[in-house]
Design goal:
With 246 residues, the chain is an alpha/beta fold. The protein is 40% helix and 21% strand. The protein has two domains: 115 residues, Response regulator (Rossmann fold), CATH 3.40.50.2300; 114 residues, Response regulator (Rossmann fold, 3-Layer(aba) Sandwich). A five-stranded parallel β-sheet has the order 2-1-3-4-5, sandwiched between helices. A five-stranded parallel β-sheet has the order 7-6-8-9-10, sandwiched between helices. α2 runs parallel beside α3 and α7 packs parallel to α8. It is elongated, with a radius of gyration of 20 Å.
Amino acid sequence: MDSEKKVKVLVVDDEQRVLEFLKHLLTIESTEVKCVKDGPKAIEAVRKENFDLAFLDVKMPGMDGLETFRELRKLSPSLKCVMMTGYEVKDLLEEARSEGAVASIQKPLDIRQIDSLIKEYSEPSSSQKINILVVDDEKVVLNFFRRIFRDDIYEVTTLETGQETLDLATKKQFDIAFIDIALPDISGVDLYLKLRKINPDIHLMLITGDPSRAEGVEDLGYLCKPFEINKIFLEIDKIKSEKKIL
């Protein structure tokens, strides 16, 4: 497979034959592959390296695939995870999908399905990044958003006031903006509406540490502090889908 950048794949399964099969198949697909036999080893691997895609067995002794998936997403929120199973575990698979797993596949593994997933995540995209704007007067919040987004995929701009946000929004296009409801110089809702007029295509989310502040504007969409990272990336995935960015 021709690609400017090899996709890095992590395979987690307690069956040696599955590891060998996927390592052989994925190597043919010109990917970089790392295979481990359990959840703790997967966590250790993700702490040391960045992976683009992970294949996780659902049923493993000790830490199962769903637990492993949750821990990996905490360490690497942009990691795309595919759940694998040879059992009837519909509830677990639905739970994983609701929390951000991109797909699930049944054993025995279908080579064509795996090939399709690899192609989807290894096709070279343009150099276009997702442009993210975060507006909040709390530095801990701004640092949080800077930390969770990888520099090679996202460009994150952080600002503390509404006025500097409006000044910049007339000069630079953003794909998504996370706006604190309570800013020092302007209501976050007013800023939301003004940004919508400047850029009708921007995806906007309000953020607040007090859900009562969002009463009456729930239809605008909001996230509560402390943040659930999965919910943030669900919003990011909507943008990627709309813009056809992998």
